[in-house]
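Posting for a labmate who doesn't have an account.
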Amino acid sequence: MHRALLALAVLLVLPASTEAAPPWSAPRDVSGPFTFVDGLWAAGGLIGWRSGDGEAGAPVGRSGDPVFFGTGGGAVAIVRPVGSNRDPRSELRVALRSGGRFGPSRRVAKHPWIAPPTLAGNARGDVAVAWFEDRSVVSDRVYVALRRAGHAFGKPIRLATGRIRGVSVAVGSRGDVLVAWNTVDKVRTRLKRRGHGFGRAETLRADPAWAAKLRPAVASSGRAYVAWASQGLFEGGDSGAAYYDVAVRPAGAARFRRAQRLDGLPAHRLGGPLDLALTGRGNAIAAWVSDRVRVAETGADGRFGPPRDLTAPGAVVDDDVTRLGGIDVATTPAGARLVTWTVPGPLVQVAFGAAGGPLGAPEDVATGETPRAAFPGPAIAFQLRGADGVHVEEVTRAG
C-alpha cells in the first residue's frame, strides 16, 4: 500500500509581525510541482505538507497537523496500522521536533484500532494527544496522554466508554486540558485544570449534533469553548439540517452554558466546516462556511455577537452540493485575526483584523485553494494546480 510522506520545510521566512494594512505580496512558490499535496498547514514560521512523491527526512504515517511551541519545538502524531488478525493492535507514536528537525518517534500507546488522533499544545511545550479505540460497537474508548514541557508523555488516561464518533483536544497557555468527543448525536467533555485531575464528563446542553466536527479551546483566563458544525447524512445521499453551535464554560464555572446557535441551513442544503481561535483576554472568534462565509466574535461576557457575512450568499458554492476550500483562522495573543477561504475560480480570499481593530473587508490575494492562515506575518499558504502538477505557494502581508 502506498504510504504518503510528510515534507517539512522552514520555507515561510516571514517579516517582522505588523498589524497595519499594507497590500499582500505576490505569490511565491515554495515547493516545486507534486503529483498531489495533502494536509497542507502553516504555523510557527513554517509551511508543511504531505505528498506522495517520495520526500525524505520526515516521519511517515502522520495523522493530523503538527503543533509547535517555544523556539522551534514541535510534535507530530503518527499512527502505525493494525497488524494481523492475531494482533489487531495499532501503535500511536509521537515525534518531537528540536534543532530544526523531527527526531525518532516514541510509542505512546498500543491499542486496538486507534482512530486518527488529535494533537494540541501551548507555547511552553505542554502537549496532549487524544484518540479513541474504534471498536465499532458501544464500547469505544476515549483516551488522552499528556506531556509536560520538557518531559516524556505519561501513561494514557481513559476518559470515557461509549459509541464514539470523534475526539478533539485543546491545551491552554496555563496547561489546562480540554478533551471533547461526540457520540451519535451528543457532545461531551472533560476538563483538567493545571495541577488537578480531569473532572467528571459533561454532556453539553445542545440540540442533537449529528456527525459533529469539534473545535475546542481553553483561554488563559480559564474560559473554555467547544464549537462544532454538525449535519446528519443518511442513506441515499439525503442530508438533515446543518447547524453551527458553540458552548462556553466561563472561568471558574462548574459547567458549560447551554450551547449558542450561531447559524443553520435547512435540510438538503450541504453545510461546510467551522474553525475557532482565541483572540486574547479570554475571547474567541468563530468562522464557518454555510451558504456563505461568516464570522462571529465574543463580547466581554463570552457570548458571541451576531454573525457578520464575509461573502454574499452562494459565493462559496461551486455547484449545488460543493463547498470550496474550507475555512481557516489564525490569531495572535494580542488579538490580531486572519481568516481565509476559497471561492470558485478557485480564488483565495482573506479578511484581516489588527489587534484592537475590526476585521477588515475581504481581499482577493491569489489564485489557489485550501488556504491556511498563519502568524507571524501574517501569511497565507495555499495550493496551486498547474500544468506540471501541484505547487505550494505563500503570500505575506508586507510591512
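Reply:
Got it, the C-alpha cells are right above this. Residues 5-61+113-396 form a domain with the Neuraminidase fold (CATH 2.120.10).
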